From TrEMBL:
This is IclR family transcriptional regulator. The keyword Ubl conjugation does not apply. It comes from the Bacteria. The lineage of its organism: Bacteria, Bacillati, Bacillota, Bacilli, Bacillales. Transmembrane segments: none annotated. The keyword Cytoplasm does not apply. Gene3D superfamilies: 3.30.450.40, Winged helix-like DNA-binding domain superfamily/Winged helix DNA-binding domain. It comes from Paenibacillus radicis (ex Xue et al. 2023). Signal peptide: none annotated. Keywords: DNA-binding, Transcription, Transcription regulation.
């Protein structure tokens, strides 16, 4: 990574977190200062902030342990593997019914990351294997996931008015994107009409976890020549699959 984008405060917070994780309940403020060579004033500010964010917890002896935030994040980290397993179990039958590919993706910043794919037996495929990243605004999956964010969160992700283009059909401005997101919230699904890859359309719907939080999205993708014939069937089936995956994820969460 280019060091000009490095954030020293985050590096210090990371170092504190790792040290506390290695020696929970053993280290006080002064111990952390000595071990990490951080001034007392800087360490005090770091610890105050990390306590407020529930990254750390301080006990009666003024030593530190990891806070509840990391319990929640750890649970979410492992739950994504439950989701991938559920997708791999359920998606094949849905793929065979429409004979089109299904993708599972999550949101990271203003990009989507493909987590899993059930590919149709076709010579023509979108490049959307696990680990592939694409701009969220250029995909149905991404727009579905962005629709779960509020105005302030979206503003942080899209500070500039212009958007990068992957095809002639990709949304070009933040205003166009935000208008589409408002419509997506109302209708409950998102479309990608050759916006990410020329010759392919997609229809995407959300996957939820407990508390009605959107954690991922799934989509059918298909060549343009199949779109009109299969669009309605694909929407019905992808909604059914999303309900199954949401149920599986919530059931796993309740067992933790």
């Amino acid at each position: 990574m280019d060091k000009k984008y490095w954030v020293p405060a985050l590096e210090k917070a990371h170092a504190v977190t790792r040290l506390v994780a290695e020696e929970p309940g053993q280290l006080k403020l002064t111990d952390l200062c000595k071990r990490l060579d951080i001034s007392k004033s800087s360490m005090f500010s770091l610890l105050q902030t990390m306590e407020a964010l529930h990254w750390l917890a301080r006990d009666r002896s003024d030593t530190y342990t990891l806070g509840m935030h990391f319990g929640m994040m750890g649970s979410a980290f492992f739950r994504q593997f439950d989701l991938i397993d559920a997708f791999r179990k359920e998606a094949p039958s849905y793929m065979r019914e429409v004979n089109e590919s299904i993708q599972l993706a999550s949101l990271e910043g203003n990009e989507i990351v493909y987590m899993a794919k059930e590919a149709a037996p076709s010579l023509v495929q979108m490049v959307s294997g696990p680990g592939t990243r694409l701009p969220a605004h250029a995909t149905g999956l991404g727009k579905m996931l962005l629709s779960s964010l509020d105005e302030s969160q979206l503003g942080l992700l899209y500070s500039e008015d212009s958007l990068s283009s992957l095809t002639p059909f990709t949304l070009r401005t933040k205003q166009e994107l935000f208008r589409q997101l408002a419509a997506i919230r109302q209708q409950g699904y998102a479309l990608d009409l050759q916006e990410g890859v020329m010759g392919f359309n997609c229809i995407a719907v959300p996957v939820y976890q407990s508390g009605n939080k959107m954690i991922a999205a799934i989509s059918f993708s298909m060549p343009l020549h199949n779109w009109e014939e299969k669009r309605e069937q694909a929407l019905k089936l992808i909604l059914s699959l999303a309900n199954k995956l949401s149920f599986s994820t919530n059931a796993a969460s309740e067992l933790e």
